[in-house]
Structures are given as C-alpha cells and as structure tokens.
Design goal:
Elements lengths: L1 E2 L2 H13 L24 E2 L10 E10 L4 E10 L3 E3 L2 E14 L3 E12 L7 E5 L4 E6 L5 E2 L4 E9 L4 E12 L2 E11 L5 E11 L5 E10 L4 E8 L1
Antiparallel strand pairs: 1-7, 2-10, 3-4, 3-16, 4-6, 5-6, 6-7, 7-8, 9-11, 11-12, 12-13, 13-14, 14-15, 15-16
Length: 230
C-alpha cells in the first residue's frame, strides 16, 4: 500500500480493511418510470452460483464526505472449501483495489466464510488483516420478501472489536429488490468504530446487478461511498 501519511493511511484502511470486513446501499442506478416491485415476490438472497463457481468483478467510482473523488475495482471469487472456527466452510475472497486522487492507492484481500449446509446457511466470519476469533450466528434465509429483515450474527475479531451484521430487503423497483447488509463495529470500550453498508440491486433469482459500498469511520469522521455495476 502506497500512502503519503498516517492520516491518509487511516482513511484508506477504514475503507479497504475495516469496510470490507463483511460483505462487500447498492445504488439503484436511476431508472425512469420506476414501478414498485410486488411485495409477494420471494427473492433469493444469493446468486444461484454463489457457492459453486462464483467469480465476478466491478469497476467502482465514488467520493468521500470531503469531496475527494475515488476509483477502484472489486473482485469476488469462490475458493475451495476449508475449515473456519472449527466448521466446514465455503470461502469467498474479495479483493479491493482503491485509488484516491492525490492520496495514494491500496489493495486489500479479505476472505468471508459461510457454512456449507445449503438449507441452513450461516455467515461464520472473516480472515485477513482483521480475523474473526469468535462468532454467534443465525440462519440466513434462502429467500425473502421486500420488507423482511434479520440479524446474521455477532462477531469478535483479533483486536477484540465487536461487530453486529444484519440484512434487510427493500424495494428496488421494476421487479427488483435492494438487498442491504449493515455491519456496525464497536471498539473494546463500546464506542463506535465504524459502520459499513453494502447494498446489492438483485433480480428475483438472486443475481446481483449493481453494488454500492458506504462506510463511515468514527475516528476520522469520514464517509466513503463507492458504486459499480457487475
């Protein structure tokens, strides 16, 4: 990582390392004559190939709350099954490359782990610069309707920071939905460290069309937003 000074380093790390701690508000790239999606439709929460041969990428553009323009790229790829926290797991590796004008660039690689039972899917935690050491998880439903939500789990990492991860499904209009993952991380003192919001615009079959990443770091008081299309 090429960073000019510590302040800029914290800025990039807040997005690349902490921000991608869990999943990678997806923008619904504005459409004319938007029609509300029926609340009777059951949307799959994961793409059909997510746990078989998933391999996607997207170019990202955005800015921070100071008006600095940002660009980047995100790649998400399924890796061979392994063990994590004593449980058989399907790992998804997310590689994020990031450039902030006049500030430097960085690359972060984070691996997220899911249970392998197709009927009882759980998010187990992550490894990388930040690694989950303890987790209390709940089932992630296979399908959900707009308006539904739930808690995915509570996690403790190798810094003794605690995180709560939740999901919700909102109207994406024109037959689509917005699948939102919200991660809130607190310091050992209990004070807020950061929030990270990831939203995917999805089809009924779970296919992800767009992504938006929005992170807020309370230490440096900066919000970063990046979005892209797969």
């Amino acid at each position: 990582m090429n960073i000019k000074n510590n302040t800029q380093k914290y800025f990039l790390v807040s997005l690349l390392m902490v921000g991608t701690y869990f999943f990678a508000h997806t923008a619904v790239f504005a459409a004319n004559k938007a029609k509300p999606t029926s609340t009777s439709i059951e949307f799959k929460l994961f793409p059909s190939n997510y746990f078989t041969d998933y391999d996607v990428s997207a170019s990202l553009t955005g800015s921070d709350s100071r008006g600095i323009n940002l660009t980047g790229n995100i790649v998400e790829k399924l890796l061979p099954r392994t063990a994590f926290l004593g449980t058989r797991a399907s790992p998804i590796q997310t590689t994020t490359e990031f450039f902030a004008m006049g500030m430097g660039f960085g690359t972060a690689i984070v691996t997220s782990y899911y249970s392998t039972n197709v009927n009882v899917r759980r998010f187990l935690g992550v490894s990388g610069d930040i690694t989950t050491v303890k987790a209390t998880t709940t089932d992630i439903p296979v399908r959900a309707k707009i308006g539904q939500s739930g808690i995915i789990g509570n996690y403790v990492d190798n810094r003794n920071f605690t995180s709560t991860l939740s999901w919700q499904l909102e109207d994406g209009f024109n037959g689509q939905a917005k699948l939102i993952f919200l991660n809130t991380t607190n310091k050992p003192s209990g004070d807020l460290d950061n929030t990270f919001k990831t939203t995917y615009l999805i089809q009924e079959n779970g296919k992800r069309e767009t992504v938006e990443l929005e992170t807020y770091n309370d230490t440096i008081k900066i919000t970063v937003t990046l979005k892209g299309r797969y």
